[in-house]
Write a structure and sequence with these properties.
Elements lengths: L1 E7 L6 H7 L1 H8 L3 E6 L11 E6 L5 H6 L8 E4 L6 H14 L4 E4 L3 H21 L3 E5 L13 H8 L2 E5 L1 H10 L2 H14 L8 H21 L3 E4 L2 H7 L4 H8 L6 H10 L5 E6 L18 E7 L2 E6 L3 H12 L7 E7 L11 H11 L4 E6 L12 H14 L5 E7 L8 E3 L5 E4 L2 E3 L9 E3 L2 E4 L8 H6 L3 E7 L5 H10 L2
Parallel strand pairs: 1-2, 1-3, 3-4, 4-5, 6-7, 6-8, 9-11, 12-13, 13-14, 15-20
Antiparallel strand pairs: 10-11, 14-20, 16-19, 17-18
Helix pairs in contact: 7-9, 8-9, 9-11, 12-15, 13-14
């Protein structure tokens, strides 16, 4: 992460002395960022993806800055630590810029406050740049009662670089008709198996909703959309279903999943991130790999410090592809999540999120899986954020033993009590199948089930920690050899 300081200094001050004069602020910035001092004459060499701060190094530069008004970065962020009359100059410059309609801000004061503000400005800049070039689909026209929800397409394009794409609902209907019930049956079963309950609607209703999801997803891929809005009410008359489930699935779908977005947000301050994520839900896939058909991946997004790919394969496939075909060097850390749902206890064996982690671990890379005990697509991940950064930073600093990874689970609570290092709870799933007759055939079942903890009072296990408001960290080994049984087993065959 780099900050470019565009420096303005009076000719009366020797350049060699500037570093010494501003040692305190420069050294503090360098603790968090790579700092590059750029002479104002070279500012045109910087690109739009470069984060820039105007460094008022001395007084007497007011007219010099004004002369370069058109070249200045916008908004104008002025850094002035008070040395060499820099603050007085910054105040004069900022007032002049604001008088010409240019947003301006002075960074001055206690060093911790300056650094905190720089963090905010830097993240704001990255967020704004990440929007540039994004395509948002407007499927159908807004309802008549949305009197304040119209968007100025041209203004959004000019200010943020966002492109809005008008898409008629007829395209949705066309794709919907092409998708058959049998094509979505397995997906419906997978979705239902993750639901806490399906209290409304019939299996046929779920199938319609899944066909709509597939139809909208095709349009997203055809138009290369980053986001969309959908005229839901008009769908009811035509195809007798709404877009509620479809939009929820898209929000939770691979690279569009909120858990991944939140994980990126929490970890971006730690370094460069490359995302390789499945293009559709893969819950319950464990460590599965694809062997019956080719696996395809595609670049979706490339921003400053963030590259995003989607993959047609399993979570394990994602790691294998990234490791062997995409990355130019060995990553410092592999992270899976944030999963919607509990991956404690025996769930670690079924989890696609932990499949990512185990695959990374097998390749000798420190690996962590994060999960939140909530299936709500709008779940609040914020309480987990500080812990995620802390745990990731500690693993980056200290590493992990060979063939050992971390399974981290968060309770769905606004306030967490802290961290507990746990053992895996002993238990099993019961009552796993619910009959779901379809089209006169009784041999259809939903996978449901309840987990039975065999040691509910064991305060050392991850189930107990989560139930009592703690973050559960379970160190997990991928070597499943039962070493304690080897000698006994050998005696069987003497």
């Amino acid at each position: 992460m780099t900050i470019h300081l565009i420096s303005f200094a009076s000719i009366l001050h020797k350049q060699a002395s500037l570093r010494n004069s501003h040692e305190a602020i420069l050294s503090e910035l360098e603790k968090y960022y790579t700092v590059k001092l750029i002479d104002y004459q070279d500012m045109d060499k910087l690109g739009s993806d470069d984060f820039k701060i105007i460094f008022i190094a001395t007084g007497g530069v007011e007219r010099l800055v004004i002369q370069h008004f058109e070249r200045l970065p916008r908004p104008a962020i002025l850094l002035a630590d008070g040395m060499q009359n820099s603050l007085a100059a910054a105040l004069e410059i900022s007032t002049w810029l604001r008088g010409r309609g240019m947003k301006s801000e002075i960074l001055h004061g206690e060093l911790p406050s300056i650094i905190q503000r720089v963090h905010i400005l830097y993240n704001n800049f990255r967020a704004q740049r990440s929007l540039f070039g994004k395509r948002i689909g407007v499927i159908g026209t807004p309802s008549s009662w949305l009197v304040a929800s119209n968007v100025d397409y041209l203004l959004a394009k000019r200010r943020w670089g966002i492109e809005y794409i008008d898409i008629p609902l007829e395209r949705v209907y066309e794709h919907f008709k092409q998708i058959t019930d049998d094509q979505v049956g397995a997906s419906c079963a997978a979705v239902a198996s993750q639901a806490l309950a399906c209290r409304e609607g019939t299996p046929e209703d779920l199938i319609k909703a899944m066909r709509l999801y597939r139809a909208i997803k095709r349009i997203c891929e055809e138009e290369k959309l980053e986001a969309l809005t959908l005229s839901c009410f008009k769908l009811i008359d035509q195809i007798d279903t709404t877009g509620c489930l479809a939009l929820s699935l898209l929000n939770d779908d691979g690279i569009m999943a909120k858990g991944i977005s939140e994980l990126i947000k929490f970890l971006r301050p730690l370094g460069e991130i490359v995302v390789m994520a499945p293009d559709a839900p893969r819950s319950g896939s464990g460590c599965a790999i694809t062997v019956t058909q080719p696996v395809h991946y595609q670049l979706l997004r490339k921003d400053v410090g963030l590259t995003v790919y989607k993959c047609s394969g399993t979570p394990s496939d994602c790691i294998k592809l990234a490791w062997n075909t995409v990355l130019e060097r060995k990553p410092d850390l592999v992270v899976g999540g944030i999963n919607h749902g509990d991956n404690s206890a025996t769930n670690v064996h079924y989890s696609g999120t932990m499949g990512v982690v185990i695959e990374g671990c097998l390749n000798g890379i420190p690996s962590i899986g994060f999960s939140l005990c909530s299936h709500d697509p709008g779940a609040n991940f914020e309480p987990a954020g500080p812990y995620i950064r802390q745990i990731a930073a500690m693993v980056l600093e200290k590493g992990l033993p060979p063939l050992t990874c971390l399974n981290v689970n968060f309770p769905d609570m606004a306030e967490l009590k802290g961290i507990k290092i746990c053992e895996q709870a002993k238990g099993r799933w019961t009552n796993e199948w619910e009959p779901c007759p379809r089209k006169g055939d009784d041999n259809y079942f939903w996978l449901i089930g309840e987990f039975k903890d065999d040691e509910p009072e064991n305060e050392k296990n991850d189930h107990w920690a989560l139930a009592n408001g703690y973050v559960a960290i379970t160190p997990t080994v991928v070597d499943v050899t039962a070493y304690g049984f080897m000698n006994e087993l050998s005696k069987w065959f003497e």
